[in-house]
């Protein structure tokens, strides 16, 4: 018996195959991209207490609503690491992209219910092989380079669309855990993004981090 396959079905099958190959290739590429080093001190389902090693950070502050600030900041920092700097030197890509609001906003309700146009810090990690003093200097004065010392963080991991509704729900879950465990924290939450915008929403890898209060004492 001969099976008839129409053009529409053939196109759908080919599209799915190409998508699966692309996702597999991207996953392989991501596995070779440098990420912050940490050890898991304690784990409970999707929440972890982590100890992070020192980092060098490139940061830019953008005043806008959260998603637009993330896109603008990403573009500016990408431009810097791709070689648009004083020394015309490219820096290797790292993951993830981090986004943090000012310390005035310390809880989920304030972050997502007040005026959406806030100051957001967008951050890239610089690969560990670079010395801070020898980093290429940004052409854009809005981009700042600085070092972060070792610190302890409480983190929640989740997949899915990284819109405000999802981040609000996950942040409230993390805040509840912190309160129940009587964990002392400091600073505003940090939103973490591992995947580009075109990644399928269901498999996007996201995190929220909050620094533990004793980190600065170590």
Helicity, as a percent range: 25-40%
- Catalogue the unreliable spans: 17-29
As for the CATH topology, it is: Multidrug-efflux Transporter 1 Regulator Bmrr, Chain A
Strand order of the largest sheet: 1-2-7-9-8-4-5-3-6
Q: Can you identify the CATH class?
A: Alpha Beta
Put the structure in a nutshell.
The chain is α+β, with helices and mostly antiparallel strands and 218 residues long. Helices cover 29% and strands 31% of the residues.
Which terms would index this structure?
single chain, 218 residues, alpha+beta, Multidrug-efflux Transporter 1 Regulator Bmrr, Chain A, nine-stranded antiparallel beta sheet, 4 helices, 29% helix, 31% strand, globular
Mind sketching the topology for me?
Elements: H1 7-31, E1 38-44, E2 47-52, E3 55-64, H2 66-81, E4 97-101, H3 108-113, E5 118-126, E6 144-148, E7 151-159, H4 164-180, E8 185-193, E9 205-212
Antiparallel strand pairs: 1-2, 2-7, 3-5, 3-6, 4-5, 4-8, 7-9, 8-9
Question: How would you describe the overall organization of this protein?
Answer:
The protein is α+β, with helices and mostly antiparallel strands and 218 residues long. The protein has a single domain (36-212), classed as Alpha-Beta Barrel (Multidrug-efflux Transporter 1 Regulator Bmrr, Chain A). The protein has helices at residues 7-31, 66-81, 108-113, 164-180, and strands spanning 38-44, 47-52, 55-64, 97-101, 118-126, 144-148, 151-159, 185-193, 205-212. A nine-stranded antiparallel β-sheet has the order 1-2-7-9-8-4-5-3-6, with helices on one face. β1 and β2 form a beta hairpin. The longest helix has 25 residues, at 7-31. The protein is globular. The relative contact order is 0.18. Residues 17-29 have low confidence and may be disordered.
């Amino acid at each position: 018996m001969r099976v008839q396959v129409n053009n529409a079905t053939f196109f759908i099958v080919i599209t799915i195959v190409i998508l699966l190959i692309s996702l597999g290739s991207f996953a392989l590429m991501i596995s070779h991209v440098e990420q912050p080093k940490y050890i898991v001190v304690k784990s409970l389902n999707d929440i972890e207490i982590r100890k992070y090693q020192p980092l060098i950070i490139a940061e830019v502050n953008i005043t806008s609503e959260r998603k637009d600030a993330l896109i603008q900041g990403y573009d500016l920092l990408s431009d810097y690491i791709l070689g648009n700097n004083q020394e015309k030197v490219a820096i290797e890509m790292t993951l993830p992209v981090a986004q943090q609001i000012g310390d005035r906003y310390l809880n989920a309700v304030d972050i997502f219910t007040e005026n959406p146009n806030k100051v957001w810090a967008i951050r890239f990690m610089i690969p560990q092989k670079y010395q801070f003093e020898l980093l290429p200097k940004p052409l854009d004065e809005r981009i700042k380079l600085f070092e972060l010392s070792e610190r302890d963080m409480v983190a929640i991991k989740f997949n899915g669309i990284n819109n405000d509704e999802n981040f609000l729900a996950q942040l409230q879950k993390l805040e509840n855990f912190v309160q129940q465990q009587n964990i002392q924290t400091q600073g505003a939450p940090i939103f973490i993004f591992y995947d580009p915008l075109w990644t399928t929403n269901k498999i996007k890898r996201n995190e929220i981090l909050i620094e533990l209060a004793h980190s600065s004492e170590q």
